[in-house]
Design a protein that fits this description.
Layout lengths: L9 H5 L2 H30 L4 H25 L3 H21 L5
Helix pairs in contact: 2-3, 2-4, 3-4
Length: 104
């Protein structure tokens, strides 16, 4: 059976496990970065205390969140679940931080 790119169907092309690994890697790298950034901003506006202390706390917590996001991306059953599990809390924290006055 000839599997040249001209005759391969899209279903066979995307069923290759390499695409799942690539998607999970992108979710871990870029999604983890977005989640860490959102966590840092959210903590800066949501935590009580001096601005410098809340920013530092948010940045330290963001390092832990980025590592957990990378673990989550490869621990889930599917790449879609990895993306949803990273982007949902990111969007939630961004929305709440925006309502609390971030990026105003």
């Amino acid at each position: 059976m000839d599997r040249s790119p001209a005759t391969a169907s899209p279903r066979i092309f995307f069923s290759n496990p390499r695409w799942g690994v690539l998607s999970r890697s992108l979710a871990a790298i870029f999604g983890g970065y977005a989640l860490a950034s959102a966590t840092s901003v959210f903590c800066a506006v949501a935590l009580p205390g001096a601005r410098g202390q809340t920013v530092l706390t948010g940045m330290l917590l963001a390092i832990l969140v980025a590592a957990c996001a990378a673990l989550w991306a490869f621990a889930t059953r599917s790449a879609l679940r990895a993306w949803v599990g990273i982007l949902a809390p990111t969007l939630l924290m961004v929305a709440i931080a925006r309502l609390m006055g971030a990026w105003a």
